[in-house]
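seq as requested:
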Amino acid sequence: MKNKIRILISLIAIILLVLIIRSTYSKYVNQAVGSLMTRVGEWVIRVNGQDITLADAPANIVIDSDDFVWNWTDVQHVKKPKVAPGMIGSFELEIDPTDTQVSFEYDISIKNPVIQIPGQDDLEIKLAIKNIVETHGRTIEIKEVDGNQLIHRIKPLGEIEEAATAVDTIRVTVEWLDDGTNDEADRIAGSVPDNVIEMPILIHAIQYTGGI
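struct tokens:
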């Protein structure tokens, strides 16, 4: 009888030991995962208010006629909000990584904008990109790739952590060329009330791990 009691006590002790070990291991795993997750920086980048980090592929930002500001004060013969050949306009891309906790680099690909004329699928007015700057004076790399303007910049964590330097603003200036080579298309464009400026822009951002 005593042997049976000893065996039973031993079995209970082994079971309790196993439970204690499993419980301890489970807590360790949970804590380890929790610690790992706290080391992964948050990653939220908004461009003109649109979260581009939700997309698997490069994000497509829509720039339409309402996003442009034209030099109406310099052109006396064109009434706002109409535009005409010879005018210069600009729009801005605001890259806001305020909620991001890692350095990153981004590429912005911009095609030359065109004015689409309703009912004239074979006719479009091309605008020329004249200038691209970061409005706070920060350095950006600009090069032409396959006819598109490619903007590249590394955004260091030090800038992101300071409210005054967290947001980059890219200003793109375009001109509706008036060089006499496209007068007929310009005339048709000017006679249609619902022309639309189409500006395809792709933006891609990745975490930056190199030296800054």
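Confidence is low (pLDDT under 50) at residues 7-40.
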